[in-house]
């Protein structure tokens, strides 16, 4: 398959057309459970139970693991869901209230009974960790949970819990050792002080038992390793797609996970954010998307923001 193309196909079918060990990393956000109806029978997210939803995603990401190079990584942005409480969350008469999330969902997907006996009405289901543990059990190395902290979020009318202002990004790898460009995503240190640096260098070089530190002549105290909480504001999108993560959220995923001229995969491409960021960073992309209207949106965004049209 050609790179820099978003293919109009169901993701599992598309992935099976890719060769083994053919892409460098995967950056994606699958449809959330029971949240939106994209109007296609092959879509993921409207399964009857969380378990069926997770099983389908495991199947998709099993194919992703096959097509990744041995040093490849997977970055998955995923949000959580609540079990229906008998109020707006699962009452068909109130489904119109969910327009905030895009196209009105199918009544059967809101507040569906789940198989897990431990899940009660109003419980947080724990979808992100269900997925993370299922992928780990399927052979992935679960390397890190990253918190996407949102400075501004849609207000919630709930009065018995806090308004949710975060989502997860999971970093998983195909192998124990994998490509990760730590230097490319370092961030400025918040406590840089040359006097502290010089004092600490002397202390480290003369501390008994710190042989690895002895002889150290330089320390880059101006920069530090990137932390695992990423504060990135959401941005409104005027197009016809409602599940658009901000470009800044995935810049470091791609910089750390894929070298220049490598290939970034997104099996749930949507309106093309992964493709746009990949091209801006001089990486190639391959994407799959069920809805042809979303591909048109992605093409338009690529022309305007990157100056290219998929070929």
TrEMBL record:
Pfam families in alphabetical order: N6_N4_Mtase
Catalytic activity: a 2'-deoxycytidine in DNA + S-adenosyl-L-methionine = an N(4)-methyl-2'-deoxycytidine in DNA + S-adenosyl-L-homocysteine + H(+)
InterPro entries: DNA_methylase_N4/N6, MeTrfase_CN4_CS, RM_Methyltransferase, SAM-dependent_MTases_sf
DNA methylase N-4/N-6 domain mapped to chain residues: 23-298
Name of the top EC class for this enzyme: transferase
PANTHER family the UniProt entry points to: RNA METHYLASE-RELATED, TRNA (GUANINE(10)-N2)-METHYLTRANSFERASE HOMOLOG
Protein name per Swiss-Prot or TrEMBL: Methyltransferase
């Amino acid at each position: 398959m050609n790179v820099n193309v978003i293919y109009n196909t169901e993701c599992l079918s598309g992935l099976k057309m890719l060769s083994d060990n053919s892409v460098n990393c995967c950056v994606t956000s699958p449809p959330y459970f029971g949240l939106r109806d994209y109007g296609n029978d092959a879509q993921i997210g409207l399964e009857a139970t969380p378990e069926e939803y997770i099983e389908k995603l495991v199947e998709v990401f099993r194919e992703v693991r096959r097509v990744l190079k041995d040093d490849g990584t997977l970055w998955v942005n995923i949000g959580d869901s609540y079990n229906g409480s008998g109020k707006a969350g699962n009452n068909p008469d109130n489904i119109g209230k969910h327009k905030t999330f895009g196209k009105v969902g199918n009544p059967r997907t809101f507040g569906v009974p789940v198989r897990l006996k431990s899940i009660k009405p109003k419980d947080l289901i724990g979808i992100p960790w269900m997925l993370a543990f299922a992928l780990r059990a399927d052979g992935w190395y679960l390397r890190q949970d990253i918190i996407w902290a949102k400075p501004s979020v849609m207000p919630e009318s709930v009065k018995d819990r806090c308004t949710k202002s975060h989502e997860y990004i999971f970093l998983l790898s195909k192998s124990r050792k994998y490509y990760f460009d730590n230097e490319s995503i370092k961030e400025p240190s918040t406590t840089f002080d040359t006097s502290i640096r010089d004092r600490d260098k002397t202390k480290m070089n003369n501390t008994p038992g710190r042989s690895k530190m002895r002889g150290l002549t330089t320390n880059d105290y101006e920069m530090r390793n990137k932390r695992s909480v990423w504060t990135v504001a959401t941005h409104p999108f005027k197009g016809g797609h409602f599940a658009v993560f901000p470009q800044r959220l995935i810049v470091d995923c791609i910089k750390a996970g894929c070298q220049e001229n490598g290939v970034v995969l997104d099996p749930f491409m949507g309106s093309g954010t992964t493709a746009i960021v990949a091209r801006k960073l001089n990486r190639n992309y391959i994407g799959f998307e069920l809805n042809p209207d979303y591909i048109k949106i992605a093409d338009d965004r690529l022309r305007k923001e990157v100056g290219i049209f998929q070929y």
